[in-house]
What does this fold into?
Amino acid sequence: MKIDLIVGARPNYMKAAPIYRELLKYPTEFQCRLVHTGQHYDEKMSDIFFRELELPKPHIYLGVGSGRHGEQTGRIMIEYEKAILDDQPDHVLVAGDVNSTVACSLVAVKLHIKVGHIEGGLRSRDWNMPEEINRIVTDNISDYLFTSSRDADENLQAEGIAKAKIFFVGNTMIDSLYYYMPKVDQRRIHQELGVIPGNYILITLHRPSNVDQDEIFKGLFSTLETIQQRMPIVFPMHPRTLKMLQEFGMGRYLELPNLKITEPLGYHDFMKLQKDARLVLTDSGGLQEESTVLGVPCLTLRENTERPVTIWEGTNELVGSDPEKILARTMAILDGNVKKGKIPEYWDGHTAERIVAVLRNN
Ligand code: UD1
It folds into this structure.
């Protein structure tokens, strides 16, 4: 069976790496090509993850780069179709909800190639998020929906997707979390940044809904200014966020003593920082899940989440982008008022094994 495993943007790599490793265990059954669309291309958004996750150089690199949604999605489709026309895989595996996910699924389904969607079925019900559109389209054209939580199964069935296509397998990103932990534990990023384990807040912020609108963006940064007076904040900054900070003339925030803004970090350093943080503030999907497994309190700066299991069972709470709410809840957590959680079902480090078992049995 020939498989193309697609990656394109930062959150894809840690979801794909465990599957690549697992497929290699069956060399007579699977031939796997790693396809990188080039949606993310910077050293810090791409190459460092390949090294740290021990992924080989992609077998196919499409080099599409940044662009508007239609432009980027379209370019990935054109380039991926060209790349595989003469040597088509039997299956295409895509992960998550980025533009590369939907683009490569569309190419595959139109060539009658079977599509497997890792992390299928998640829904925020927020159509303003490009990711929600990507999820719905990808799920509806996939042959295998590999889900990470039971609510995802319910979402898919409610949309009329046949039960036989849905496989509750768990979370491959959590496979990576466990697998690389020994390497993560060796990192010395705290010393490099001058922070003490358990005594800093980690924040990531890059959603268009938070960083593209001047009023919301400024509100969030003035809240961070207040919080950093109480506890240091580490802020590995996405290129999009840095661009907006400069565009809105907010460069002074780069100088605040306890707001430690860094470049995007590699996987090992970032996980080390997350593991030892007192609190995570984020608008990312992945951090909501990782912090739940690490048992670190997480405030999600969004009005909704496609990962509700992290709220029902984990340490995650939704606070939106209202400065007062963020500040109040942050201070309460720093005062010890934390929400305890448990690790969701099948987030156990063995999800890739279950996915590959499904492929072998079918
Ligand atoms: C994409 C995903 C988002 C995911 C995020 C993780 C979509 C629709 N969005 O958002 O779901 O949470 O990745 O990072 O697929 N840029 C660089 N260097 C890079 C890549 C991007 O400087 O290597 C800058 C460019 O200015 C680019 C901007 O970041 O225009 C946004 O990149 P893009 O891939 O369009 O979306 P993300 O915001 O990264």
Remarks:
- Residues 9-11, 39-42, 45, 66, 97-99, 130-131, 206, 238-240, 243, 284 surround uridine-diphosphate-N-acetylglucosamine (CB under 6 Å).
- The first strand starts at residue 2 and ends at 7.
- The first helix runs from residue 10 to 23.
